[in-house]
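Morning!

As promised:
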Amino acid sequence: MNPADVWHHLLLGLWTTLRLSTASMGVALALGTLIGVLRVAPVPVLRWFAAGYVEFFRDIPLLPVLVFVYSGLPKAGIRLPTSFDSAVAGLGVYTAAFVAEVVRAGLQSVHKGQIEAALSLGMSFLQMIRLVLLPQAFRMMIPPLGTVFIALVKNTSIASAIAVEELLYQAEFVIGRTFADWPMLVAFFLYLVITVPLSGLVNFLERRLRILL
Amino acid sequence: MQASERPWQTLVGVGIVLLLIPLAFRMEPARFQPFAQGSTWRFLALGLALTLEASAIAILASIPLAVLFALARHSGPPWLRYPVIVVVEGIRALPLLGLMFYLFLRLSALGRQMGLDALTRPDAAVIAALWLYTGAVNGEALRAAILSLPRGQWEAARALGLTYSQAMRLVILPQAFRRALPPLVAQFATLVKDTSLGAIIGFIELYRRGVILFQGERNPMETLYVISILYFLINYSLGRLASMLEHRLGFHPGLR
């Protein structure tokens, strides 16, 4: 295997890591917003359920969740087409807990008067969330969501354990073929190429928000 | 709009989640049968002990490293400060599993070269990776704690005639440690979770023992469910401890 092949494998892995990160973030945003809204719902049981969901997934490692989806769900008759899909499901469900916390904090940061105004206009809870609170909270939520996304990008490396051919998997594959360990350093560099600019962006947005407020 | 749930309400919520999972995936009571045997629990308890041991070694060993990182970055000379910033930020921006894998390669090669058997084992790489990673994270927590102390502390110490290192050692660091204690406990919970990554390179800790169990019993869902509950119980307790300490010590992380 010559260096060009090594780079080819690693760049393929990088592409899969990017696809996996964005697809999982999509699932996490949808599910996390739902759970985050439930966190402030007017029905106690729903609030408790959402708080329990967040607490449970924040306190357990990601690896058993991924393996649960990959090796466990087929036993329940739920077969996802590829290991990539299993990873998206597992990462999405896990990351949703972290997204939900950001959404809850965002919703609670909106001024109380906005809630009173929305309710006195006769809006329902869901209308108030959708039309009044989420649009205003969204700006506040962007930097912390960026932090969640960076953690997610790093977490996608764990999908290598369920045979998703992402960056770390490819690095391990190439190392197994070449017996050289420099490909791992290249993989590190490629991870940094994603995470360092992202965290710079998060810091920049955080500072800007602080000035605006 | 409600601020946040009380602990018992959150626990009721966790109970609902834990009830819904077996229902949703139609887990069979018969498949939980291995957990009625003492031998299963003894097997898992050994794994749990290894998990806690590796986490404890990593966090204790990370404290001197964290102090070094924090001091170098806070007030080190430029030739030390900038490399430390690069290293700390680099470690934090990399996936821990990659770091573990790389250290496993290097340490086992080194161990073979020097004839040190202990270095070739996955335990060494797991602990080394957790140590570096936690050192970087705790270093930042400690630096934040140092920066959060009122300037008057510095000024008073210097006015009393203490040198920089005396002021740091006798006045600033003891207070910073107090403030960094709750994040340290929270970091321990993170370590307990991250130790499970060691399973991938062959460290037979709690999660890996669960995998060994379910490969024999062919009940991955049920076993992983039980293992996850064990992790939850440990980390939930640690989380409560961290917030108790925060209250007891009389400050909130938001204040710094």
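Chain B is about 80% helix and 0% strand.

Hope this helps with the figure draft.
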